[in-house]
Amino acid sequence: MANERDEVHPFEGRVDFPYWDGLGRDELLVQRCTGCARWSWPADWRCPRCGSYDLGWEPVEPRGVVYSWVRTHLAFVPAYAELVPYVNVLVELPGADGARLMGLFTGPEEGLEVGSVVTGTFQAPSARTLDLSVLTWSLEVAAA
Amino acid sequence: MKRPTGVAAVGYGATPYYRRGQSPHAERKLLLMAIDEAATMAGIDAAEIDGFVSYGADLEDGPRLTGPLGTKELRWSSLVWGGGGGGSSAAIAQAEAAILSGQAETVVVYRATAESTSGRLSSAVIQGVFGIQYRAHGIDSPAQALGLRTQRILANGVPPSALRAIARASYFHAGNTPHAVGRDVDLTDELYEGSRRIVDPIRLYDSSRENDAAAAIIFTSAERAADLTEKPIHLLASAYGAQGPRWGELDENHEPYTASSQASAARRMWDRTGLGPDDVDAVQLYVNFTGPPVSALVDLGFCTVEDAGEVLTYENLVAPTGALPINTSGGDLAEGFLHGMGNAVEAVRLLRGESYNPVPDAKVCLVSGGPISELSSVSLFGTEPLG
User: Fold this and answer.
1) In A, which residues are within 8 Å of B140 by CB distance?
2) How many domains is chain A built from?
3) Torsion angle defined by CA atoms of residues B180, B185, B189 and B190, in that order, rounded to the nearest 10 degrees
4) Same domain for B184 and B325?
5) Which of A15, A121, B297, B334 is the most buried (most CB within 10 A)?
6) What CATH code is carried by the domain that includes residue A119?
7) In chain A, whose CA is at the least distance from the CA of B133?
8) Assigned domain for B347 exists
């Protein structure tokens, strides 16, 4: 596997550690600059707008709009092979100035398109998710 | 020493495109053979090459090549940082910088991929782009990331027929190219539409393969090129970079989402040369999948999102009669996939009059590096130097 640019050991040293840590408590946290209040995603060490290194984390409702989506027919990721074909969505969060999160889509697909409203469900860690807590996403009507 | 006034390609070499994992030779040997072929065409001893440039996490670094080549003096060795295939013409830009500055005199630009050394290309080219924000959710391939962008390209109003035309034109040109891996495929609309789905909205025939191969182009000053060959192919301009911040996971969060990264490099290329899309006789596009090159053509100024369906038709994209011939060897889809290096080779081949799909009176050929990448690149070749 290719090395990853944001890799830090131990894991707690990663810039996006609070995000993963929050998901484990059923909380969606997105990085936000304490200095100028700019939402910052993906998480990084320095605010590109004001130059501050003082970046905090704010809770955001796990509800968003499908910005794009794909359905994967090949087992590009061995841990996901048994789910093929599966759908991924890139979800835009209105509650975080449009920050976009990647996620697995679950549930009925009828009506799924760019612009669909989806809600997130907190999932426990598994080998499939690299032992990380994650959000999966479903159409809002189906989740209701 | 007098600084060179320009840079020219004096020779190219390319091995056959083997199926992935099937090369009878190790990766470095493939590359050495490609460099030798280029040196022979250039009329130089390979030991005279004093600069080495590659991109896309190529493992064949310059110093390691000096042994078997018997390099007399190493003066330049560099790899384009980041961007994968987006760096294909950036490597040419680094060679140009080396030669124009006088750092080096004879620079080879190359790419080599063989699974026995580099592993699966789909992993080898990624350079850590797919971090855990992707992999935890089952995303770990260019097909998936570019599928997301292709979905938006279509949602923005580019008709699917434009993507199909790029695929069909590529396979048409491959049909005339004896070494092309896709030479026997008669890609009809029906075959294309019926082909199996890889990552919706990407079909099999929207997708490049993985191949074992190597290719190389030798550059030197325009002055020296004139002494070496009767057919120097002049590098009119090269450029690379991106507009604004872009990298891996940030690419899901920047605007415009479907931007090719070619706009700023293209602007500098047109400014520097005084040329524009109307002056280009053929375009060698990077086509890992058929969506991204549409973004490239928009950002390069060949069409708009609105008229992409009218400009990007099969008839328009094929040589010798189309107004905008693309990928005259079959390109990444149908000649073979060498992470874009084959496209630069074909540009030089075409302008030397050696393409199997000649474009009548072709004088200027554009090479577009991998689009929708965190950095991208362009190079513009001509049969004559700029006036």
Assistant:
1) 76-77
2) 1
3) -160
4) yes
5) B334
6) 2.40.50.840
7) A102
8) yes
A103 reaches B (C-beta below 8 A): yes
Q: Which helix (H) or strand (E) holds A122?
A: strand A117-123
Looking at the structure of chain B, the number of domains it has is 2
pLDDT, tens digit, for every residue of B168-201? 999 999 999 999 999 999 999 999 999 999 999 9
SS3 content of chain B, % helix, strand, coil (to 5): 40, 20, 40
What does residue B13 show for φ and ψ, rounded to 5 degrees? -145, 145
What burial class does residue A114 get, using C-beta atoms within 10 Å of its C-beta: 0-12 exposed, 13-18 middle, 19+ buried?
middle
Integer angstrom CA distances of residue A95 from A60, A91, A98, B129, B381: 6, 12, 7, 27, 49
Nearest CA in chain B to A93: B253
Which tens digit of pLDDT belongs to each residue from B330-380? 999 999 999 999 999 999 999 999 999 999 999 999 999 999 999 999 999
- Please check whether residues B116 and B145 belong to one and the same domain: no
Cβ within 8 Å of A, B 115-134? 122-124, 126-134
pLDDT in the model for residue A2: 41
Domain that holds residue B341: 131-204+237-382
pLDDT (mean) for B232-259: 93
pLDDT one-digit tens code per residue, B12-65: 999 999 999 999 999 999 999 999 999 999 999 999 999 999 999 899 999 999
- The residue among A46, A76, A100, A123 with the most chain B CBs within 10 A of its CB, best to mutate, is A76
In a domain, B126, yes or no: no
pLDDT at residue A141 tops 90: no
Whether A39 and chain B come into contact, CB under 8 Å, resolves to no
State the best of A1, A4, A128 to mutate against chain B, taking most chain B CBs within 10 Å: A4
In the numeric block, which tokens belong to residue B294? 């549409």
CA geometry: angle at B8 spanning B7 and B11, to 5°? 145
In this structure, the answer to whether residues B336 and B285 fall within a common structural domain is yes
pTM: 0.96
Q: Examine the domain organization and report whether B46 and B93 are in the same domain.
A: yes
**B54, B90: one domain:** yes
Q: CA B80 to CA B65: how far, in whole Å?
A: 17
B354 vs B19: CA distance, rounded Å? 25
